[in-house]
Q: What sequence folds into this?
């Protein structure tokens, strides 16, 4: 199997373009659902692959990962404004066209981006399994899952909560914009000063702030309150995500980095998404949205306690932290 992330990215973008092209003429819901499943088959791995490439680039170019990653947040913020304006002016029928243009540009850039290679050491499954079954590794991924459930509950049910409070689409878009813009200065600060702090300490702090964020969301009675609370994305997601990837590098050697990040992505997006959707949906139907956010706060509290336990237990990096 090729170690070239650039080739794999090109393949993923080509698959997305094919799926969206197939979606354009469809009218039947069942066929559309199948095509969208094909689309997400190629779309879901892209973020973890880009993070892997960024980490490799940061190592080889002697740059900070947060300093590079903040351009992703900047692009998201600009796109939210630009695409929102275009769709407001020309209608939602242009959604697939805009997506095709965006992915097409990404496909072109995938051929000219630097082809940063992972370690060329021979992959041994036994070595990876020996790392994954360690208590500190299992504990780390368990805590990642807890925080991820809290994050997905905020992400998945925020727009529903805002609509129940009478928010318009522009206000909901403002909440998304507030969260993405708030990440940028935090990524800059982490690039400059993040290495001065212990990873487990930062993860515990981020989990605590997730608890505060979701707890306050459960008491919000006006849409503007929820928009304001999305600014806490900077001290929750930004700190948590960057620090978690940084700590992951200390747990898993370079030759297993792609596998470790794939497992991280599976926990962060897949497992946590299923739990958050299932538990959150049941709570929403039976008790209401306030209890969804309160339950998310409980998950974050449990994660904070877990990270503190790992810290006081003596789980510490065995390799140098990322730049």
A:
């Amino acid at each position: 199997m090729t170690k070239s992330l650039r080739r794999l990215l090109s393949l993923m973008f080509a698959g997305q373009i094919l799926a969206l092209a197939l979606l354009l003429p469809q009218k039947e819901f069942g066929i559309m659902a199948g095509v969208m499943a094909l689309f997400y088959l190629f779309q879901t791995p892209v973020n973890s692959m880009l993070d892997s490439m960024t980490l490799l680039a940061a190592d080889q170019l002697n740059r900070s990962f947060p300093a590079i990653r903040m351009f992703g947040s900047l692009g998201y913020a600009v796109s939210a404004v630009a695409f929102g304006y275009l769709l407001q002016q020309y209608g939602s029928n242009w959604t697939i066209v805009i997506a095709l243009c965006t992915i097409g540009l990404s496909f072109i850039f995938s051929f000219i981006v630097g082809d940063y290679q992972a370690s060329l050491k021979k992959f041994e499954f036994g070595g990876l399994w020996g790392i994954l079954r360690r208590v500190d590794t299992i504990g780390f991924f368990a805590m990642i899952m807890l925080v991820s459930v809290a994050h997905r509950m905020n992400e998945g049910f925020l727009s529903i909560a805002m609509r129940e409070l009478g928010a318009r689409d522009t206000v909901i878009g403002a909440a998304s914009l507030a969260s993405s813009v708030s990440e940028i200065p935090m990524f800059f600060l982490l690039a400059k000063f993040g290495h001065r702090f212990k990873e487990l300490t930062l993860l515990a702090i981020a989990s605590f702030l997730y608890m505060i964020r979701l707890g306050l969301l459960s008491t919000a009675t006006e849409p503007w309150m929820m928009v304001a609370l999305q600014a806490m994305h900077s001290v929750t997601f930004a700190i948590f995500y960057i620090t978690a990837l940084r700590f992951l590098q200390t747990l898993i050697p370079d030759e297993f980095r792609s596998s470790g990040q794939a497992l991280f992505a599976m926990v962060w997006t897949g497992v946590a998404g299923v739990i958050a959707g299932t538990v959150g949906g049941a709570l929403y139907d039976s008790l209401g949205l306030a209890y969804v956010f309160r339950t998310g706060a409980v998950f974050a509290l449990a994660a904070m306690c877990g990270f503190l336990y790992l810290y006081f237990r003596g789980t510490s990096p065995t390799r140098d932290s990322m730049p």
Summary: DSSP finds twelve helices and no strands in the chain. The longest helix spans residues 29-61. Residues 206 and 240 are 6 Å apart (CA to CA).
